[in-house]
Specification:
4-stranded mixed sheet; Immunoglobulin-like; mainly beta
Amino acid sequence: MKFSIYLAAAAIALCGCAGSGGTREAAFASGEPWAEIECRASETFIAILPSNPATGYGWTALCPDEVKLLGKKYLPDGGGEKLCGAGGSERFEFAALSKGDCEIKFEYLRPWEKNASPADTKILKVKIN
């Protein structure tokens, strides 16, 4: 019984569904093409994508009118220690501006390769209440 309670609590925390009023997060697992998040208008939320800037690639976000990109930050794996060639994740913070369902498209690109196709794409499905 205790295991079921802990499992349920962990699932709620990982999904960002707890009603704590904190910033919600959607973390993309490596190889997963999409993720979902739900929030209220005027709240902020975060998308986290695996990344390795040593390859020259970085994520860009293509935002619909319902959301605004507030900032982007690279977080190295290993507790902040920057190791040459090591991967990490990119953290995007958004503001939900208006109610509705929308999608944020992320493209993994090298910024100097102007006509190249993205090495990867991800979709964040956003439901704004």
